[in-house]
């Protein structure tokens, strides 16, 4: 009898410990060791949020539900608007916008529409380990949507980029469902930059807002220099590895599903998660907007933390009443705007404080000099120079460290830092030499009849004797002609 009592006590203590850890775990714990993002890094986020919101408006000249301060865009610079009637269910609606003030070409894709059956079909077109691509696994339905979008719009994007003097940045942005499509579009374009006029990797960027888990960990780290994911506090979608199709099939009992996911993931070792190559993750570098902390009432001025995490990459569901509301694009735009204003204000106050300190030191130095002159001293003191505040690590160094960390953890198909960066530099050098040489650059094989992105995806694989698609580990996707 005493043995059963002891076992029962241990079981109750274990359950109590688990319940305490889960109930006290808040979203800010995920990024407590990350560094703060600079205003320059985070400045485009509120702007791209407004562009995604603009996709919902039928008439941008007479908007019905503008955010605070309006959309702040020029309707004449909207190159194309596409609705559900135009996409035929193969992609969420989107718009293409040329921002001539900031020299950007932006393709903005809206999120999931709960009233559209086509969006659910897009999400359900996947199963664990169904789609391999570029040395990892991706969501099959989202990849098909990205390929369809590039088949339709790649010529338009290439033409606009060439007409603007090849100087503009090309930015893909999306929210929720659209974030996965935008991220996989970016991966495709990075691998086949020649199909968009030879645009350099440095001019490509993706902002995935409330991102869906759409690619394996090695790909998420590999493309962290071009893909940026923005997560608001307790958002559930980037944190659950449960397939998207299961989540949205259970949309009406989502709290119960999230609780069961918490219970299951608590007992799965971290190493086992990392060794599963089919497990999908939120893509790229992470930006976490934190506005609430444990045992603090209400919201405080949000701060933005950033890192390229490898292990512990938003692995824990937060049991919070805000887990679903933090997923909304409206709240992301508001908090991102507040965070940017707070960081700019904080930076301004810091510089002002430093200026006051330096003025005081200069006055103090002059006072000492005057005293020394009065005492006929020959010693001359020079005031110290103003030191600039710089980040401890550059973004490039953080990316190298993340790649090395992935290799050290034996992440399946993780790439080496040296070979990846060397390959990119050699390709860009060859492209620059071809563009600056006397002989005209040879046109790609498919340019005469238009790029078929389905064929480019197929070239990354080989078929086994059974007819299944197998990854070509030895293939170099950036050299496909």
* CATH 4th-level superfamily of the domain at 22-239 and 277-341: Alpha/Beta hydrolase fold, catalytic domain
Radius of gyration: 26 Å
How much helix is in the residues?
40-55%
Strand element count = 15
Provide mean pLDDT, rounded: 79
Summarize the structure.
With 481 residues, this protein is α/β, with parallel strands linked by helices. It contains 15 helices and 15 strands.
Which terms summarize this structure?
Rossmann fold, nine-stranded mixed β-sheet, disordered C terminus, two-stranded antiparallel sheet, 481 residues
Written overview of the protein:
Residues 422-431 have a biased composition (Basic and acidic residues). Residues 1-21 form the signal peptide. It comes from Gossypium schwendimanii. By secondary structure, the protein is of the alpha/beta class. The protein has a domain at 22-239 and 277-341: Alpha/Beta hydrolase fold, catalytic domain (Rossmann fold, 3-Layer(aba) Sandwich), CATH 3.40.50.1820. It contains 15 helices and 15 strands. The chain has helices at residues 2-24, 39-42, 44-55, 84-87, 117-124, 140-163, 177-191, 217-222, 244-249, 254-266, 270-275, 329-374, 395-408, 417-436, 453-458; strands at residues 35-36, 78-82, 94-99, 104-109, 131-133, 136-138, 169-175, 204-209, 215-216, 227-232, 280-281, 285-290, 303-307, 461-463, 469-471. α6 (140-163) packs across α7 (177-191).
């Amino acid at each position: 009898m005493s043995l059963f009592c002891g076992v029962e006590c241990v079981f109750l203590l274990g359950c109590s410990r688990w319940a305490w850890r889960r109930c006290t775990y808040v979203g800010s714990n995920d990024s407590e060791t990350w560094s703060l993002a600079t205003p320059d890094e985070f400045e485009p986020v509120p702007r791209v949020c407004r562009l995604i919101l603009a996709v919902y408006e039928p008439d941008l000249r007479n908007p019905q539900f503008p955010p605070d301060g309006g959309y702040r865009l020029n309707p004449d610079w909207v190159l194309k608007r596409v609705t559900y009637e135009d996409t035929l269910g193969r992609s969420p609606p989107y718009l293409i916008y040329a921002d001539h003030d900031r020299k950007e070409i932006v393709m903005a894709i809206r999120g999931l529409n709960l009233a559209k059956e086509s969006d659910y079909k897009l999400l359900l077109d996947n199963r664990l380990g169904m789609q391999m691509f570029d040395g990892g696994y991706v969501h099959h339905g989202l990849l098909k949507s990205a390929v369809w979008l590039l088949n339709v719009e790649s010529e338009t994007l290439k033409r606009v980029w060439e007409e603007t003097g090849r100087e503009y940045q090309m930015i893909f942005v999306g929210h929720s469902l659209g974030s996965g499509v935008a991220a996989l579009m970016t991966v495709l374009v990075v691998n086949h930059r020649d199909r968009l006029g030879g645009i350099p990797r440095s001019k490509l960027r993706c902002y995935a807002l409330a991102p869906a888990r759409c690619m394996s960990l090695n790909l998420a780290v590999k493309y962290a220099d071009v893909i940026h994911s923005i997560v608001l506090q307790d958002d559930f979608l980037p944190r659950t590895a449960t397939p998207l199709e299961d989540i949205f099939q259970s949309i009406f009992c989502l709290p119960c599903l999230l609780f069961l996911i918490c219970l299951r993931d608590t007992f799965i070792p971290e190493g086992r998660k990392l060794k599963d190559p089919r497990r999908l993750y939120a893509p790229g570098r992470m930006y976490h907007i934190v506005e609430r902390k444990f045992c603090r009432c209400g919201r405080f001025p949000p701060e933005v933390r950033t890192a390229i995490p490898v292990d512990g990459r938003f692995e824990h569901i937060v049991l919070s009443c805000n887990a679903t509301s933090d997923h909304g694009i409206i709240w992301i735009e508001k908090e991102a705007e507040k965070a940017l204003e707070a960081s700019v204000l904080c930076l301004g106050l810091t510089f002002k404080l430093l200026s006051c300190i330096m003025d005081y030191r200069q006055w103090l130095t002059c006072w000492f000099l005057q005293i020394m002159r009065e005492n006929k001293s020959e010693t001359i003191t020079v005031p110290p120079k103003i030191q600039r505040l710089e980040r401890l690590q550059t973004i490039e160094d953080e990316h190298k460290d993340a790649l090395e960390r992935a290799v050290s953890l034996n992440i399946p198909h993780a790439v080496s830092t040296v070979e990846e960066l060397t390959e990119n530099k050699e390709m860009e050098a060859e492209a620059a030499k071809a563009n600056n040489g006397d002989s005209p650059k040879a046109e790609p094989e498919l340019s005469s009849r238009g790029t078929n992105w389905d064929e480019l995806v197929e070239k990354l694989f080989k078929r086994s004797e059974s007819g299944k698609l197998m990854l070509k580990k030895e293939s170099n996707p950036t050299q496909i002609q």
